[in-house]
Every structure is written in C-alpha cells, then in structure tokens.
Amino acid sequence: MSQSSSTTDNSAWPAMLTLAERELVRFFRQKNRVFGALGQPIIFWLLFSEGLKGSDLDYAHFFPGTLVMILLFTAIFATISIIEDRREGFLQSVLVAPSPRWAMVAGKILGGAAIAMIQGLLFLTLGWLTLPLESSVLEILQAVILMALIAVSLTSLGFVIAWRMDSTAGFHAIMSVFLLPMWLLSGAFFPAGSDGILGWIVRVNPLTYGVSGLRHYLKFDQGDTSEVSTALASLPVCWLVTLCFAVVVFAAAWKIAGTRSTGDLL
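Given the sequence above, the corresponding structure tokens read:
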C-alpha cells in the first residue's frame, strides 16, 4: 500500500510540470492569442489614459490596473483549455492516469499563472521604459511576487468556473457578467474610497487589494496623487487578503477537481 502511494507521489511532480509546460507550449503556438492577450490591455491603457487625462487619471494611474487586467484575462482565458481538453478527450485521459488529481490541478494552475506572469512582466517592462518609474529594485521585486500571487489566485478562480462548464460560450458569459465587473470595481478603473453601495462592493472585492498593493510598490514621477494614495489599503492588509484569496480559490479548485462525478468522463 505504501509502495503504491510512493509510486503515485513520484509520478505527481512530473505530471504537474508536464501539464504546466503543455499550457505554455499551447499558448505560444497560438500567435493570435499572444497578440490579443497583450495588445488589448495596451490599447485599453492608451485609450483610458488619454480619454480621462482631463480628470487627473493618466497613464500612471491606469498602469497598475492594466497590469492586473492582463493577469486577470490571461489567467482566466488560460483555463478555457479545461473545457477544450474535456471536449477533445484529453482531460479524461489525465483523470484516469495514476497521477493524483492535485497534480493535474496544480499543473493547470501553474501553467496558466506562468502565462499571465510572462505577459505581466512584459507590460511591466513597457511601463519601466515609457514612464518614469521611481520604485526601488526591492519594491519592484515585491511587486513581482505580489503579481505571481494574484496570477495564481485568478487562475484558480478560472479553474473553479471552468471545471463544471461544457461550453466556451457559457464561460464567456460568466466573463462578461462577473469577471469584468470584478476588475472594474477593484480600484483599477475608478479611484477607490467612494462611499455608498459601490464603495462597499469595492472593499469586499479581493482584487481591490491586489491593485492597491501594486499601487504602493509601483511609484511614478507623474500622475499618482496623494488623494489616490490615501484611499489605498495598507500593505499588510493587501498581502493578507490576496494570500487568503489565493489559498481559498486554490483549495476550492483542488476540492472540486477531487470530487469524482459521472460528468468528469463525459
């Protein structure tokens, strides 16, 4: 029994890394997907920054929010592959393999988060080249670690949503009514700190604290007003909420994938 368990554990790590690598290979072979995933946020960044420059919301204000949008959309879209894998029969092959299901969950999430991080780092480099970024090396390193945590949490969220879905059209519908408002109400677009129902929704949105944390670390010579800075949550709160969100959604992904059902093999 113990030998069987040891054999299963030994096969888990290669399975996880192989699935993560497969996600990366699959992404880079789809050139249109690479262009769209990075091009759309840059276009949004340019349009929002120019269009709302008169309201003191310029390139520096929208940069952290656009960075989170890249992580959100890339990580979420990466999990669409779960639906495609099920329809093509690949997921069923993985589920009946001797490797534990946690390896499959971790592999898919690791691959999706890696794709999101690659694009996030490219956009961060673009910001460093085009804006006067004044953050220290340590602050940038901490921002990258926070980005990785956000990417893992969002990919896990996408995994939970995609696992029981059988059509990509339904997934896009969820994107429109749930995930896009989640980003808009994270302080990425509107300044945080407003009162009323909208203010409460912003406060309970876990993505708000990821955006706030990046605003703390990514400091620019222009645009970031003291009014916006004072509305941000403190850094310990940002780390705590983002970490808890990542742990909760990863555990949810692990649990939902570990619950065997007849639908898994259909």
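The chain has a mean pLDDT of 82. Try to locate this feature in the token string yourself.
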